[in-house]
């Protein structure tokens, strides 16, 4: 695997605080700060609906209270990998339209490609696309007024009407062209039957790799139960590479292609190579414990014969005890969900096309020593009371990799 430039692996996200005054109520922007309950204030029982309306001139988020009681809804807004919390007070059955300030959300113009903006409440998730935009405003055209209408005067008129105009003679014996015979009849065109659409979903999982330099760990040994606080609170010390490919195997263009995937508690998708079109919820937070993440990739339009590819780096996050999972005993890890039902990856496209593959199991062996491992995991720090030593809790990935699943529709 070739080395590549990687953004900072630990995403300590800080929300942007801004106040938007809309009439007599207030919208508060605040960081979620890793709190999984931030989207539901205490005692809030209201149910809401969200609508995102985006274009190059303006954008808005509409929040509709479907309940017969007043309350407050907290909404996650995800833009270019950053997220914000918008707190919206609502009266019973009230509809509130919140204008979105693109500059305040870090969106600069012109936009040469599309980006996705997502919004999520406790009741639903919506995604809308913005761009491309040239960033210019139309210039109004002033219609001239009081334009003088030229009036022709003194136009000379012919003084006399010509007379004695000669009348051309009537032709006689005009030859009649012969009627053509055996005129070829053009063939009736055969109607073109459009080629059937087809898409193919391919998903692979390979690794493990050391995150710091993308070194492939051919011995399959990874660290387990690493003490986060004694090692810089650094998650994702290693990762598995998930690659999703969507191939247009039919004769028509595929439009509105969207991929959905899920990841189990101990797995964490922390980086992709198409961040502008990918939304991961909830946003990675090293202090949020072990949570299930969902990933949505808007692959857009795929021409006949073309393939769209997404690479996902899947690492390991801290558990509630501050240790990096998987734990230090033999177990089966679903890096894409707890079971085949919840962990499958799926793709859909216009025309009713859809395909799905099952979850990918990884089996981790029993605890072994880290000494001599390719990842040099014994260089990590382990603290037991007053004693400081080298970390020596590792395990081997015993599943043969890579794993490859495919599905085709129809």
What does this structure look like?
By secondary structure, the chain is mainly β. The protein has 2 domains: about 20-130, Immunoglobulin-like; about 200-410, Immunoglobulin-like (Sandwich). It contains no helices and 28 strands. The strands form 8 sheets. It has a 6-stranded antiparallel beta sheet, with no helix packed on it. Strands 10, 11, 14, 16, 19 and 28 form a 6-stranded antiparallel beta sheet that branches. The model is unreliable at about 1-45 and about 135-160 (pLDDT under 50).
Percent of residues in helices: under 10%
Taken from the alpha-carbon principal axes, the silhouette is extended
The overall average pLDDT, rounded, is: 76
The N- and C-terminal alpha carbons lie at a distance of 33 Å
Q: Major β-sheet, in short?
A: 6 strands, antiparallel
What's the gist of this structure?
By secondary structure, this protein is mostly beta strands. It is built from no helices and 28 strands. It folds into 2 domains: 112 residues, Immunoglobulin-like, CATH 2.60.40; 211 residues, Immunoglobulin-like, CATH 2.60.40.
Short key terms for the protein model shown above:
single chain, about 400 residues, mainly beta, Immunoglobulin-like, six-stranded antiparallel beta sheet, 28 strands, disordered N terminus
Break the fold down into its secondary structure elements and pairings.
Layout: E1 19-22, E2 25-30, E3 48-54, E4 59-65, E5 71-79, E6 82-90, E7 95-100, E8 115-120, E9 125-130, E10 199-210, E11 215-216, E12 221-223, E13 226-227, E14 238-248, E15 254-263, E16 267-272, E17 278-281, E18 293-302, E19 307-316, E20 323-324, E21 331-334, E22 345-349, E23 353-357, E24 361-364, E25 381-384, E26 387-390, E27 394-396, E28 403-409
Antiparallel strand pairs: 1-2, 2-6, 3-4, 4-7, 5-6, 5-8, 8-9, 10-11, 10-14, 10-28, 12-27, 13-20, 14-19, 15-18, 15-22, 16-19, 17-18, 21-24, 22-23, 25-26
